[in-house]
Design brief:
The complex is a heterodimer. Chain A is mainly alpha-helical. Helices cover 78% and strands 0% of the residues of chain A. The model of chain A has no long low-confidence stretch (mean pLDDT 86). Chain B is 27% helix and 34% strand. Chain B starts with 5 loop residues before the first strand and ends with a helix. Classes of the chains: A mainly alpha, B alpha+beta.
Chain lengths: 308, 381
């Protein structure tokens, strides 16, 4: 008996020691992950939970009491003419900004990439709008597009056409703002495409040339476009997200008047101007869902196609 | 397939102040396997790229099959090239990779466009392309890999795909830029064998760039050894090995490398090493310093010859390399290659006498050029 006990004790001790060493490692791992996890909770998870909580109430900023309204806010949103107009306006804006913002940037990047000495100049020139504050730049655009004093309309008049009121004609309003949006993302996207272009091995172009790719279209389709796949996906996702977030141009140019409502501006009005916190929270959730579905869809569907 | 000759006349090329190529004249015969070999920076790759049209020469002309193609685009020269990196299109399957040169040449631009292209292509042409791809894949034994992408292949398999893409369309000549240097040693030896076999079967003109003299020696019909933008010697592997025209060639060709012995030529034209008469004579360059080159396998023990002390011996399977140094000058090292079963008998002090046959001696003047050895009688006369 004693012999067995004597034999058991050390083995039990070593197991305990091993277990405590393992748990120490686990605690250490958690400690390393903790700052990131805490930040994630503080800035994303908890706000989203609180937001979801607000979205099912009729809480108004500063109100002392509020009631649970279930999905009432969401039902209201889809019957709210202003919100629906904001939704279609944003969709139109995004539909213009994505293709132009992506493909124009690709074209510009290829032109700039082909320059040798003047490349640095063109890179800086196209990148400048990215560094400028959009609020200030929107004011500049307001002047440029002004029907009576703007240079754009002066040029139109010089050609003998009637001046166009870009920022008050409801049909031109969203496309005009989309053009400003394209101008704003172009430089950033161009830099991303330039990085992608630089990473394409020269060998591939040479192999394509020897394989008989004589014209630039062949070289583009055989090498450039497929090799830029991952870059294009990234550019498309970031451009669509920033397009959905259009706010400054609307805030400065029209303040959401004349049928220029967009999602984020509408959200801002409901939440901070009209203090409809509950309703604004519901709108935010809808906005979040749209962005999430879009970027997850793009990433999962296209990711398989662009990585080889 | 009719193999074409490739002729280079007075090719010169400079990057900045340096001349990378200095007046190269070279004719590659139809169906020949010619290697451009040399150290890195000798201009061999630039020369190949000039033939391909990827680089423009500053001077000179390139003729393929008798036609001047100097100003032609690479796509119009009907050449196929295998790159060191293989340069396979990563987004295409092996089948599409191999088919690309045929699609580019046989299909119209409209038929090559993605999505809509299928409608514009004639099914007859597409069938022909499929057949050619299948034949090329069968030749290189990669039929089972046709639906994979390059990322799913090993280095050796990618190499085969690159070769298949090159030979699918019967080009005027094949250009290869160090195609085996990314493979491990065993696979490289195997692919060497296959490339030589492929050349025999196709009977095509091969221009092969390498820095590895073993590759050049084992596969080539002729070798052009380049240094500093010039062709140092052009000849068969045998000629380069047995009759090296310069000291550089002698040094570059052969493993283990040639033994070099500093010698003096006496006023009478006798060749001396450390004051010892080696029994060799020359007609000119009397009184000069020179270098005597002796291949490791051409040295053998004699009763009275160069006295050396054995440092160590290396077993290489069939052969044994015995490393020695001169008794009179320890800085001069010699390697003797003997059959593994044989032995070098040294005396009690570890000293051995080495001799060689006159026809195996390579004498180079202090300008690096080969000196003809004279019969002893001629010199005496």
């Amino acid at each position: 008996m004693t012999a067995i006990e004597a034999g058991e004790i050390p083995s039990a001790m070593s197991t305990a020691k091993r277990r405590s060493a393992g748990s120490r490692m686990a605690w250490r791992g958690l400690a390393f992950a903790a700052p990131a996890v805490l930040l994630l909770f503080a800035t994303y998870i908890i706000p989203i939970v609180v937001l979801t909580g607000f979205s099912v109430t009729d809480y108004k900023l500063g109100a002392l009491a509020f009631h649970f309204v279930g999905i009432g806010n969401f039902v209201k949103a889809f019957h709210d003419a202003v919100f629906l107009r904001a939704l279609t306006n944003t969709a139109l804006y995004v539909a213009i900004v994505i293709p132009f913002g992506v493909f124009l940037a690709l074209g510009v990047a290829m032109l700039v990439h082909a320059r040798k000495r003047s490349r640095a100049f063109w890179e800086a020139a196209y990148f400048l709008p990215v560094t400028a504050t959009l609020v200030a730049m929107a004011t500049v655009w307001q002047f440029l597009l002004h029907p009576s004093i703007g240079p754009v309309n002066a040029a139109i008049k010089w050609f003998g056409f009637e001046p166009v009121s870009f920022l008050s004609n409801p049909t031109l309003l969203i496309p005009s703002m989309a053009a400003i949006g394209v101008w704003q993302v172009l430089g950033f996207n161009m830099v991303l495409f330039l990085a992608g272009l630089t990473a394409i091995p020269k060998d591939l172009y040479e192999a394509a040339q020897l394989d008989g790719a004589k014209n630039p279209i062949d070289r583009f389709l055989t090498v450039t476009w497929p090799m830029l796949g991952p870059t294009t996906l990234f550019v498309a996702v970031t451009t669509s997200i920033s397009a959905f977030k259009v706010f400054e141009t609307v805030a400065v140019l029209t303040k959401g008047r004349a049928g220029s409502e967009v999602l984020l501006f509408e959200l801002y009005l409901e939440g901070f101007e009209y203090s409809n916190t509950g309703y604004a929270a519901a709108l935010t959730l809808i906005f979040l869902a749209i962005i999430l579905v879009l970027s997850i869809g793009q990433t999962f569907y296209l990711d398989r196609k662009v990585h080889y | 397939m009719t193999p074409r000759a490739v002729e280079l006349h007075g090719i010169g090329k400079g990057f900045g102040a340096d001349d990378v190529l200095k007046n190269i004249d070279l004719t590659i015969r139809p169906g020949e396997f010619l290697s451009l070999v040399g150290m890195s920076g000798c201009g061999k790759s630039t020369l190949l790229r000039i033939i391909a049209g990827l680089e423009q020469p500053d001077r000179g002309t390139v003729l393929i099959g008798g036609e001047d193609v100097t100003k032609r685009d690479p796509s119009d020269r009907n050449l196929a090239m295998v790159f060191q990196s293989y340069a396979l299109y990563p987004h295409m399957t092996v089948r599409q990779n191999i088919a690309t040169p045929l699609r580019m040449r046989r299909l119209s631009l409209a038929a090559r466009l993605p999505l809509v292209g299928g409608m514009a292509a004639s099914s007859h042409t597409l069938g022909e392309i499929d057949q050619a791809v299948a034949a090329a894949a069968a030749l290189l034994q990669i039929d089972h890999l046709l639906d994979r992408k390059p990322a799913q292949l090993s280095g050796g398999q990618r190499q085969r795909v690159a070769l298949a893409r090159a030979l699918v369309r019967e080009p005027a000549a094949f250009l290869m830029d160090e195609p085996l240097s990314n493979l491990d040693a065993k696979l490289r030896a195997h692919m060497r064998d296959e490339l030589a076999g492929l050349h025999r079967r196709l009977g095509a003109t091969f221009i092969y760039v390498t820095h590895d003299q073993v590759e050049a020696m084992t596969m080539s019909d002729r070798i052009a050894l380049m240094t500093e933008g010039r062709i140092e010697q052009l000849g068969t592997p045998d000629e380069l090995y047995r009759q090296p025209a310069t000291l550089t060639v002698a040094r570059f060709i052969g493993t283990p490398s040639i033994n070099l012995l500093p010698v003096e030529i006496s006023a009478e034209g006798r060749v001396h090493a450390q004051g010892q008469d080696l029994g060799l004579a020359v007609a000119d360059r009397k009184g000069d310093a020179a270098t005597l080159g002796l291949r490791p396998e051409d040295l053998h023990p004699v009763v009275d010859g160069l006295a050396v002390r054995i440092a160590r011996s290396e077993m290489h399977g069939a052969d044994r390399f015995v490393h020695c140094h001169l008794l009179k000058d320890e800085a001069v090292r010699l390697t003797v290659r003997i059959h593994a079963g044989a032995a070098l008998e040294a005396d009690a002090d570890g000293v051995l006498h080495l001799g060689f046959r006159r026809e195996n001696a390579h004498l180079f003047g202090d300008d690096g050029l080969r000196c003809a050895l004279a019969d002893r009688r001629e010199v005496a006369a």
